[in-house]
Amino acid sequence: MNSLFKIIISMIIWGSVGLFVKNIDLPSMETVFLRAIIASAVLILYGAVLKFGKENNKKIELDENQRKDRKKNICFLIASGIAMGLNWIFLFQSYKYTTVSNATLSYYCAPVFVILLSPFVLKEKFTKSKLFAVIGAMAGLFLIMSNQATTANIAFNHTKGVIFGLIAAIFYASVVLLNKYIKGLSGYEMTVIQISTAALLLLPIIFYRNNLHISSMKTAIFILIVGIVHTGIPYVVYFSAIKDVKAQTVAVVSYIDPISAVIFSTIFLKESLTLLQIIGGAFILLSTFLGNKEKKDVEVIPEIDKV
């Protein structure tokens, strides 16, 4: 299968996650915990089957600098695992309070938050084009927030949903920035460790809350789909293909994710899509594109999105 086609398929799969999360009758935290457990198992199995990192199984003596890097990695991996878990929780909360379209588009402000935080965290220059990207995204959000309609006779709290989406975007941006400090690990290795960390850290909270009650077969099936089809499998496909595709191409193709999410929610959930939402979404996506276009090395971190 063509590598670019694999990435496109992954993006389309991630774009459909909201359809299933909407139908899972569990609190967001419990849903995220189960998703992380299932996805971790799939990814670890994938790594074991392919003997991922086989050449690293040999005993290697680490020098002092390598030991320090490993200790730093552990701290950043734990922090990014926490951020990833919170990112998913708030995104799933966003789905509960607003349409999939609004949740996805507000969540896609994550690159804009990266732009805003990069001058402080990474010491990157804040340029005019980045300023325009931020202004454009804010304008898009304003247009989306101005839409307070109801969809399919279901009352939404769009403002609350969009705010949850933005909080999720902030945590997603945190994952991106924290990953900049992690050295010597592949994208696959980082993702496995981060998702597993999120699951382990949520475990005591899940036991304490005692809300993990799967009441129907539909919920059980949808949880398996979200964990396997929307997380484990697309990551496997994505990581098997990304090394053969230019980073700039991956960055452009990644916009299939939010666009497909909007299309799926309109077709399958019958969610209304107003002109203001379309314009606002276009503003946000264009802003993130402009913000990424300036970078010489575009780093794309899969949805850890969604999904």
TrEMBL record:
Residues 4-145, 160-290 form the EamA domain. The keyword Cell cycle does not apply. It comes from the Bacteria. GO terms for cellular component: membrane. Pfam families: EamA (PF00892). Keywords: Membrane, Transmembrane, Transmembrane helix. The chain crosses the membrane at residues 7-26, 32-53, 74-93, 105-122, 131-149, 161-178, 190-208, 220-238, 250-269, 275-292. Belongs to the EamA transporter family. This is EamA family transporter. The lineage of its organism: Bacteria, Bacillati, Bacillota, Clostridia, Eubacteriales.
